[in-house]
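agent> Task received from the user: take the single chain below, predict its 3D structure, and emit structure tokens. No templates, no multimer pairing.
agent> Plan: (1) validate residues, (2) run structure prediction, (3) serialize to tokens, (4) report one or two observations.
agent> Step 1 OK, no nonstandard residues flagged.
tool_call: predict_structure(input=
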Amino acid sequence: MAEEPAPDPLDEVLDDPWRLWLSGRERSALHLPTYRRAAVLVGLTREHDPRVLLTVRSADLPTHKGQISFPGGSLEPGETPVQAALREAWEEVGLDPAAVEVLGELDDVFTPIGFHVTPVLARLPARPELRLSAEVVKLLMPTLGTLRATVPREDDRALPDGRMVTLYTYPWEGHDIWGMTARVLHDLLTGGPS
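)
tool_result: status=success, residues=194
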């Protein structure tokens, strides 16, 4: 009797529900020439209930002091959003780019202080090896299931052009996840696979 072939590791990659979700939606890109380009890494662990990699930023930083964020920052000249997100994750939390499987880019978002941000969705090992830089005081890794079970606070605000938007705040273990990070999380939690 012939031996059954070993499963192809690519099958798991191609069937990733997050990759399938990305392929079935149209990405919304922004065109804000006066805004500073940035990228963040939206890292989900490879687990049944993925954990999302978040950082608590140092109070000594020039922007977003003490806020909860995805690893990320400004694009360097000639850099793509994917390259910037991987570089920043390496610099901030020691995440080896070779351990990251980039799935694609999520909808662009902007911040009130003039950043145009491209979130880069990626899969991480279940137990990634991480090392914090001076920019990060703490790691947070809530599961998507826990965040989905959380009822976010909502606040309606008017944009400068008069359009109304809803801002979200997700409370988690004594922390408030808000701003651009909460907007990206909200899209994942309400639109992504369960």
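agent> Step 4: summary for the user.
The chain has one domain: 32-191.
agent> Done.
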